[in-house]
Amino acid sequence: MLDDRTTAAPWPTAYPTQGYAVVDVETTGLARDDRIVSAAVYRLDAQGNVEDHWYTLVNPERDPGPVWIHGLTSDLLEGAPLFGDVAAEFSARLDGRVLVAHNAMFDWSMIAREYARADRTAPVRQRLCTIALSKELGLPLANFKLETLATHFGVVQRRAHHALDDARVLAEAFRPSLHAAAERGVRLPLLECRPLTEWASSPAASTVPRIGQQASYRGNSWRPSRKRPACPYPNPGRYEADKPLRQGMRVAFSGDTSIDRELLEDRAVEAGLHVATSVSRLTSLLVTNDPDAATSKTVKAKSFGTPVVDEAAFTQLLRDVAPADE
């Protein structure tokens, strides 16, 4: 009988060699001042095999938010450790590994902020989003929800929105995804994890904010500019009310958003939309929570007749973006 190790295709030399940390965090919400209430990490070796796992509750020192989703009440979290108390153990699980998560920008943003509040830096240099990997592989998924990815690979989900079970499910779905990518020579969609500097870079926010105190970064002015890859889909035109967004649509944002702007833009890009930095006659949609503000974008949108929706409506539309016209 032949040894499978001699007949298998060689593992891509460009793939990470120090392994992966598959992460899931449950939070009090999606905004930049929200907190982590639980976290889980599955450590995998370079070929996606499980080494160990870890889970902790985290006292957010505030209302736990959507208890109906994560199931963690104030009573359950009252005696839980603060993030600063578990930061060292969390770091040991992340150190030197690629952070893997489903919608990795969100998990990374929440983790990075918690480390910043604790006057620490997360030991993560790269992240990999399993949504992006699914798209690279062209998996025939009806949508990019974790449960849909799990079903595709025959992984049974036992407790949705429980950090440990979500991390387990993702780890079990990531391994076959990783091997499929290796067999086909697919480039892994690795992105840099830049240290969080939002509090340090603003004169009005020179100290790490404490509970009940929000950082001052109005208009996301602390964020460095970032060049995004070109949208691969043609612009199908303007958004029409009561119809879904379509891949390739040009979306612009104006004013403050409750969800971190970079996260919101990343979600739009991952859905196949083009994030525009200005409004023109080609803009499909403007997203703003203050349509009456006299900003250059809202003024241009009114003059061009560009459709306008608020952030809440846009996040709902992102759940079901129609594929691009072929």
Note down, in words, how this protein is organized:
With 326 residues, the protein is an alpha/beta fold. The protein folds into two domains: 15-192, Nucleotidyltransferase, domain 5; 229-320, Rossmann fold. 31% of the residues lie in helices and 15% in strands. It contains eleven helices and ten strands. Strands 3-2-1-4-5-6 form a six-stranded mixed beta sheet, sandwiched between helices. A four-stranded parallel beta sheet has the order 8-7-9-10, with helices on both faces. Helix 10 (296-304) links the parallel strand 9 and strand 10. Helix 6 (130-137) runs parallel beside helix 8 and helix 7 packs across helix 8. The chain is globular and about 55 Å long. The N and C termini lie far apart (47 Å). Residues 1-7 and 198-225 have low confidence and may be disordered.
Topology, element by element:
Elements: H1 4-7, E1 20-27, E2 36-44, E3 50-57, H2 67-70, H3 74-78, H4 83-94, E4 98-101, H5 104-117, E5 126-129, H6 130-137, H7 146-152, H8 163-184, E6 190-192, E7 250-254, H9 261-270, E8 274-276, E9 285-288, H10 296-304, E10 308-309, H11 311-317
Parallel strand pairs: 1-4, 4-5, 7-8, 7-9, 9-10
Antiparallel strand pairs: 1-2, 2-3, 5-6
* Helix and strand element order: HEEEHHHEHEHHHEEHEEHEH
> How do the strands line up in the largest sheet?
3-2-1-4-5-6
Structural class: alpha/beta
What is the overall pLDDT average?
A: 85
CATH H-level homologous superfamily name of the largest domain: Ribonuclease H-like superfamily/Ribonuclease H
Task: Give the overall form.
Answer: globular
User: How many structural domains does the protein architecture include?
Assistant: 2
Count of distinct strands: 10
> CA-to-CA gap between the ends?
47 Å
Q: Tell me the β content.
A: 15-25%
CATH class of the largest domain: Alpha Beta
CATH second-level architecture of the largest domain: 2-Layer Sandwich
* Biggest sheet character: 6 strands, mixed
